[in-house]
Amino acid sequence: MRILFITSTRIGDAVLSTGVIDHLMRAHPDARFTIAVGRVAEGVFARMPALDRLIPIEKKKYGLHWLGLWRQVAFTRWDLVVDLRGSAIAWLLLARRRAVMRGGRRPGHRLLHIAQTLGISPAPRPVAWFGPEESAKAEALIPPGPPVLALGPTANWVRKVWPADRFLTLARLLTGPGGALEGARIAVLGGPGAQEHAMAEPVLHGLPGAIDLVGQLDLPEVAAVMSRCALFVGNDSGLMHLSAATGTPTVGLFGPTPASEYAPIGARALAVLAKGPPGNAPMGALSATRVAEEATALLARPAVEVAV
């Protein structure tokens, strides 16, 4: 069985699509997948079982990236084409079945919209794939010892970034005397590039003993590292979704983006919203004390299956 799966250019949306892929793999054990995805997010699928081919999509003027993709997939007869980008390409291919997600904003979580495209209910929880090499590297970076608090102080939009001093206060509340992770080590994660480093630098400066992993890992390595952490707290970002997909307790921080659409989904995951209009609140309106309280309560909760 041959399946073409066209997914997002963004890491977070790509991670959210892994649940339905995992569902399809379980339903069709003989299936082989071709994944078309934005280059920045291709690492989400690099260690995916049943992967036949990974096609990175690089946006071009006049929609020419779609023509380039069509040329690579047009001469295969597909059993199923899933298009989460809502393009016309699915209708221009030989396919026994097509599932095309309609575009535009609408109420409900993005995970639910993805699952509805294939008629799957409840929406399957995202997963994270990594292999033995990534596990070995993660163990070298985070050897056995005290638990690790992972912080994600970066995002792709400056308004989504929680103030650095709040991350520092949070780290003190959680890892200091009486904290839920008393004595824990701290790791700081972020993507590559100067902007990510600039966002993370004040947190790294304020936590001189932290493990600096900003821009140093590919996505399967990030997933392996996350899986070794006791807790992740970070801005609304691809790293937040990847952390939740590993099953690591995950706290996502939301202000100017809608948690109703993009809250982290995992066995133990929650969104903490800044005070103000949902989806339009300043990140500065979210206190470190409140985040610490929510994180502590999350750590006390058992892992549960999530229905969206």
UniProtKB/TrEMBL annotation:
<dbReference type="InterPro" id="IPR002201">
    <property type="entry name" value="Glyco_trans_9"/>
</dbReference>
<protein>
    <submittedName>
        <fullName>Glycosyltransferase family 9 protein</fullName>
    </submittedName>
</protein>
<dbReference type="InterPro" id="IPR051199">
    <property type="entry name" value="LPS_LOS_Heptosyltrfase"/>
</dbReference>
<keyword id="KW-0328">Glycosyltransferase</keyword>
<dbReference type="Pfam" id="PF01075">
    <property type="entry name" value="Glyco_transf_9"/>
</dbReference>
<keyword id="KW-0808">Transferase</keyword>
